[in-house]
Structure to design on (219 residues):
């Protein structure tokens, strides 16, 4: 089980991630998000991350040029919500995570699209991010109701990244029901309602909860 902390916005948060030895750091490049970050600020934070932490550029319906710029900026993975253009899959040299907001209409549409991709395009997508209906809302979805849907064949050769409203209180339950490869948290490790910023204690608690749930599974 690996951990992604998303929506990183300050240099001190790099220390929080380093201390907890998380696996992925997500940076949001979307002007409508309150966690939107400039590339200059992101570079400063990335410089402070341990080399073992993979850097994920989170984008919404980007153009090919926008993705290629993020490649040059040193990101390891491109996570794409909204429209994922096939030209990006043809040209990018990085791993791509395809994000699906879990409404019935979008899920079925994205699954049909994935199954129609050319083999080289399909192979470029290494992970599927399943988020709640409204990306970035901090809301969960019904894990029990959707567990059979999320075990479909499409995930057999892709990483299953679970997002949407996770926190230290509910992540163990989510893991026990859905068994994702990666858990992805953002608002669940933020202590503030009126401003952004990760809280070290909440990150510590989240990572501990994940580790405890894994130990429980091995008993």
């Amino acid at each position: 089980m690996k951990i992604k902390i998303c929506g990183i916005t300050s240099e001190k948060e790099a220390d929080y991630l380093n201390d907890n030895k998380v696996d992925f750091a997500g940076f949001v490049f979307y002007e409508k998000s309150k966690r939107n970050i400039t590339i200059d600020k992101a570079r400063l934070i990335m410089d402070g991350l341990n080399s073992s932490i993979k850097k994920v550029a989170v984008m919404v319906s980007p153009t090919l040029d926008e993705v290629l710029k993020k490649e040059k900026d040193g990101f390891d993975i491109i996570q794409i919500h909204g429209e994922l253009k096939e030209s990006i899959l043809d040209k990018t040299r990085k791993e791509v995570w395809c994000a699906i907001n879990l409404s019935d209409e979008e899920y079925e549409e994205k699954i049909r699209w994935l199954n129609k991709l050319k083999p080289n395009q399909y192979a470029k997508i290494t992970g599927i991010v399943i988020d709640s209906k409204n990306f970035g809302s901090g809301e969960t979805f019904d894990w029990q109701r959707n567990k059979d849907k999320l075990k479909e064949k499409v995930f057999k050769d892709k990483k299953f990244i679970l997002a949407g409203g996770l926190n230290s209180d509910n992540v163990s339950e989510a893991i026990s029901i859905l068994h994702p490869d990666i858990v992805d948290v953002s608002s669940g490790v933020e202590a503030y309602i009126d401003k952004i910023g990760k809280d070290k204690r909440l990150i510590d608690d989240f990572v501990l909860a994940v580790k405890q749930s894994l130990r429980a599974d091995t008993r």
Remarks:
- The mean pLDDT is 91.
- The longest strand covers residues 54-60.
